[in-house]
Amino acid sequence: MSHTTKHAEVRELVARIRRETGRRVPDVDPNGPGIQAAVLLLFRAPNERGSLETGLMAFDNPDPTARYERELMDEVGLSQDICVGWNAIPWDIGNEPIAQKHRRRGASYLKDLLRLFDRAPVVVAHGGEAHAVCRIAGVEAIEVPMTSPRGLYGGGANRRSAAADGLRRAAKLSTPEP
Asked: Which strand ranges, in their side-by-side order, compose the sheet holding 122-126?
């Protein structure tokens, strides 16, 4: 499958979400596996210093969440080559609090995205909003803390090992047995 083909349908979905919401929506990383991904990493919503700045859901974005995610993926042996990122609320919500209507709409878009995949990916839901959207969509997911600084270390906690354990499980589930 060509580079363009594995991303074209996701780009069409992104364009549709942009039209329907009138908001900014980051595109899928053109260097990633697109709909051939074995793992879907689901985050909360696009952020200004990351995917909204670059316009891409990419693991090399310049924000702390992307940096922590890369570090954890490297630590547990989860290759970026088999992962695609997406947001539970895929459009820019600005400073709006996330409401149930956003979660329901995000769940609908998540189901639309998953229908595009060649095979069902292992889904890793990062943080409470991603967990909620997966439950609404009826999507089985490995639930991990958000890999933002606050998600991993907020309130004096250290949730890094919980995040690493979930990503390690995704790596194991996405690798075919020999």
From this structure: 83-87, 39-43, 122-126, 142-144
What is d(CA 123, CA 134) in angstroms, rounded to the nearest whole number?
9
Number of H helices, E strands in the chain: 7, 6
Q: What is the pTM of this model?
A: 0.94
- In the chain the domains, ranked by start, together with CATH numbers, are 5-174 (3.40.470.10)
Q: How far is it, in rounded angstroms, from Cα 31 to Cα 173?
A: 23
User: For every one of its 178 residues, what pLDDT tens digit does the chain have, with 9 covering 90 and above?
Assistant: 444 578 899 999 999 999 999 999 999 999 999 999 999 999 999 988 889 999 999 999 999 999 999 999 999 999 999 999 999 999 999 888 999 999 999 999 999 999 999 899 999 999 999 999 999 999 999 999 999 999 999 999 999 999 999 999 999 999 866 5
